[in-house]
Amino acid sequence: MNVNPDGRMDMIERHVKMIELVADRGEIETGELARLLNTSEVTVRNDLNTLSKKGILARRRGYATLPNPDDTNYHMALHYEAKLKIAAAAAQRVRDGETIIVGTGSTCAMFAAQVVETRRNVTILTNSAYVAANLCKEPDGRIILLGGSYQKHSQCMVGPLIKRCLEDFHVGTAFVGADGFTDSGGFFGVDMERAEALREMVRSAERVCMLLDGSKLGKSGTVSFLNAACVAELFTDSSADSVLCENLRIRGMHVNIV
Asked: Is the pLDDT confidence value at 4 over 60?
């Protein structure tokens, strides 16, 4: 972790550490956060104001806490540093002026934000209402929200209209996530409607790139929606099972560990 000569962390490192501390404990007093981060309570409160505006953390009577567990921001706070690294690395695969498909979930949302920040004139096709709402005001980047039935708890669109919306599109790469992966079952989701939407989305792309933090590798799920043979590239972090990653490489997948 980077620290300044006086022993204090820079802002980005402090935000990452703050999010990880709150995610680990569920909630933590602001004074305790200041002590653990070796900074002042004023700085902690300012950081919390910034992070709460982004929806990643919430403030409650002198405490920092996680958002509603049903909210995408709640999942964003879990393994935040790993997801941020994955998002930044995967964004390097996107070219200026390209059209891409982006799936749902916290890592995909962070990836979309990185793309809009670092690339110009990229068009993002997505069924994530969360991504559309958070990036629609950005000057660079065009968001096309695929139609369907709105699923409140995941903040995304699902249903047969997704397929109709995609009929006229064919893109180079789909960047999607999953709730788990096993050698025997492939990539899993926990929701049948979201899994079906992802199937339709990856069919409209020439190649599929998976964004998965290490905790998801080796973890099974409810609905298997994509075979490993259909995935060209995987971005994960150093906590991922090394044997599983090597097996995927042997089978022809390009595995990036950040």
From this structure: no
